[in-house]
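Here is my example:
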Amino acid sequence: MKKNTLYLFVAAASSLVCAAPGVSAKTFTESMQQGSVVKINFRTRFEDVTEDYYAVDPVTKVLGKKGEREADAWTTRSRISYQSGAWNGFGFTGEMDNISEMTNDVDYRTSAHSSDPLNGQSKTVAVIADPVGTEVNQAFISYTNFNNQVKYGRQRLVLDNSRFIGNVGWRQNEQTYDGLSWTNKTIRYTNFTYAYIKNVNRVFGEDNPALGDLHMDSHVLNASYTGLDAGKLIGYAYLLDVNDPIAQLGLTSDTFGVRWQGTVGESFLYNLEYAKQQDAGAAKMFEADYTLAEATYNVSRFSFTLGYELLGSDDGKYGFATPLATLHAFQGWADKFLATPAAGLEDTYLNVGVTVAGAQAVVSYHKYDSDAGSIDFGDEIDLSLSKKFGAVVWTAKYAQYSMGDTNASFTDTTKFWLMADWNF
């Protein structure tokens, strides 16, 4: 574990103790002990990935199939979380994660720990982004009163459906944020959130020098209003300023949008959203649109969702980007479109869910096309089954992506997961 993560724990705790001079350490200690909560979580998972890869023949210059990349990973994440009791409105939250490899798979370790995730692919190894190690997942001090909550330090940040700001909770190493957040509920029916993000602790782990941290000076604003009978209105501005001069070419941007989460009766729900994204002073000039139209109908034990999501393109030169999103939740579980193609992406999808004997099953189909030009990006079928037995939730998932037009970046891929998650 890096020293700076340990320092974050110590600094947060020290700041809390010094926050209100004149109160004895004994009084503070008692208040922390009386209301403190300790939780332990274990999540073990087997993941299997197989994907085709292509190469250009140096003589004929023709793109052809070269072979398959494969990787298996059996990992366990152990998490201990601590939340103190309140003391004059102040509190402290800390959370440590350890990710261990249950086997000694050299191929998996090559891909998961490489400073360049494509490095493993040159050795016909697929990437599974669950590097082993121990890290501070959260460590923040908080102040809470009737209408406000302020957090300072390393924290989880999830807004709306995680399409723009999320925690990537599916990966073993969760994405968290270093900075300051403020939530205010002073105005009736209104929730306002502001966050200043100094650093993003990404899923690749802090020991990865190229991809582990994303340093930035970013401002996040999100406001919602629930005083309407028909639904919830949300407006947002995400002003991302990435410090890395290379990464900022595609990630430094200003995004402004509005979202409507509507309901009709108790069975029909729909979401409508529009956003515009533009460059924010980087060398690369761009502008792109985002559109979402989604409807869900619940009847008996079944749930049906039909949706259309567009991450637009700027004339084939730039695709609408959501670098801080929980990307696994969108555009299929095969994770082929973690970065939006320059031609943009249209995703038309249908999800069917059913609950039987306490088990939840989901079948999902996606059809992918470009926004600029007429590129067929292929399609995907996803399946999942989840059931809780006592304190353990068992989940099995499968994703099969089939390529469309010949494109070396998006090739046939299958993934399978079997996971057990339990809390103490």
Notes: The first helix runs from residue 3 to 17. The CA atoms of residues 118 and 273 lie 34 Å apart.
